[in-house]
């Protein structure tokens, strides 16, 4: 048993702060010493080596404005002391993922800690919404509780993020997800599509089926996708020659999916692509399971197939905010042998609109602009 299981709930947050006492003490002192730059914005991306996703869209929008943008990226060499000084010296800190270092800290003097969570919608349970399941946290944990603002994709998911992060509804901002602006920008979509086909000329004129499941396992260290679930060769063998398969495994998964040489001309591994959104633009059909990619993909109004061979187990161990059927705007398949036919027959259905209304209604191409306006409003408060 670990600390979570052995520690009395009321003592746990104290131990979190005690374990981080150097950071807590330094940050408290720095906040008293430094007047925060009212236009200072720190983008903290703990799992990214370069700006991408929501933080990239925010950085682009702030370029050339009155705001001063700083970044903290994975592997950039910044010391903890440097990071704390940078954050203490800025009005806004924006984070796009779980960031253990920040949770014991108390933000004072008008400083804001803003979460622009890396996944859209509300699909798999996370944070405090996972209480009682494997790997769940302690009810009194400090994790997530110091966000001053959380950006979400629709009013329909506010209550889910309240539960997940242990926050009141007035800290959840349903203003849309910045990176979804791409899907409403015809010029940007055309550029990304052209760039993709310049890199992959052999795919021109082909129907690209994008296979993009989420990982199994608990963490980055043990993430995997079971080889037994999917046979790329058997899949493409069952489809006409104009279909090709693109593999996009989760970034946590390091081992590539095995592909026989005889079908290498019809199977391409796209897992090295950090951002999946450009791949969605060129996909003819998406195959996925419990990945939040279903939300962005719904904005494109294209066919999707849900491949869920382990649905019962996954639902038991990880669970979803809503019954799984709520998320289905395409057919669900549990046998690999049924996938080719499901892909060939997949169509856009009326369920798309209901899905959009529930999970994506604030995503309209202006999400980043509304985020910038939120910064300006909170700067003046």
What does this structure look like?
The protein is of the alpha/beta class. The protein has 2 domains: 3-180 and 365-380, Rossmann fold, CATH 3.40.50; 186-359, Rossmann fold, CATH 3.40.50. Helix content is 32%, strand content 14%. The protein is built from 14 helices and 12 strands. The strands form 2 sheets. It has a 6-stranded parallel β-sheet, sandwiched between helices. Strand 10 (285-288), helix 10 (293-298) and strand 11 form a beta-alpha-beta unit. It is globular, with a radius of gyration of 22 Å. The model has no long low-confidence stretch (mean pLDDT 93).
Would you summarize the structure shown here?
By secondary structure, the chain is an alpha/beta fold. It has helices spanning about 5, 10-20, 20-35, 55-60, 80-90, 160-165, 185-200, 230-235, 275-280, 295-300, 310-315, 340-345, 350-360, 365-380; strands at about 35-45, 70-75, 90-95, 110-115, 150, 170-175, 205-210, 245, 265-270, 285-290, 305, 330-335. It has a 6-stranded parallel β-sheet, sandwiched between helices. It has a 6-stranded parallel β-sheet with strand order 9-8-7-10-11-12.
């Amino acid at each position: 048993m670990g600390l979570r299981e052995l520690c009395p709930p009321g003592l746990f947050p104290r131990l979190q702060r005690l374990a981080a006492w150097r950071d807590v003490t330094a940050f408290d002192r720095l906040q008293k010493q430094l007047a925060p730059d009212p236009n200072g914005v720190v983008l903290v991306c703990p799992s990214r080596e370069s700006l991408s996703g929501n933080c990239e869209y925010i950085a682009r929008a702030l370029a050339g404005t009155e705001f001063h943008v700083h970044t903290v990226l994975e592997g950039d060499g910044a010391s903890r002391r440097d990071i704390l000084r940078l954050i203490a010296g800025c009005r806004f800190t924006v984070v796009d993922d779980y960031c253990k270092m920040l949770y014991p800290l108390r933000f004072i003097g008008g400083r804001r800690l803003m979460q622009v969570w890396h996944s859209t919608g509300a699909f798999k349970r996370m944070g405090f919404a996972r209480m009682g399941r494997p790997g769940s946290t302690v009810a009194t944990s400090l994790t997530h509780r110091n966000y001053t603002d959380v950006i979400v994709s629709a009013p329909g998911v506010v209550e889910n993020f309240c539960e997940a992060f242990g926050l009141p509804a007035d800290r959840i901002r349903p203003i849309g997800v910045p990176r979804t602006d791409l899907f409403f920008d015809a010029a940007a979509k055309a550029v990304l599509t052209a760039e993709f086909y310049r890199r992959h000329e052999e795919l021109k004129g082909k129907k690209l089926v994008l296979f993009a499941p989420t990982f199994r396992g608990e963490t980055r260290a043990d993430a995997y996708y079971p080889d037994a679930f999917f046979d790329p060769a058997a899949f493409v063998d069952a489809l006409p020659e104009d279909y090709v398969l693109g593999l996009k495994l989760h970034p946590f998964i390091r081992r590539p999916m095995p592909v026989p040489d005889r079908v290498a001309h019809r199977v391409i591994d796209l897992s090295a692509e950090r951002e999946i959104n450009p791949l969605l633009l060129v996909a003819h059909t998406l195959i996925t399971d419990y990945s939040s990619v279903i939300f962005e993909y719904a904005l494109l109004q294209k066919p999707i197939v849900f491949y869920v061979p382990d649905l019962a187990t996954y639902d038991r161990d990880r669970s979803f905010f809503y019954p799984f059927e709520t998320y289905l705007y395409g057919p669900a398949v549990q046998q690999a042998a049924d996938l080719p036919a499901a892909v060939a027959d997949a169509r856009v259905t009326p369920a798309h609109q209901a899905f959009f209304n529930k999970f994506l209604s604030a995503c309209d191409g202006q999400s980043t602009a509304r985020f910038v306006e939120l910064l300006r409003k909170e700067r003046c408060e």
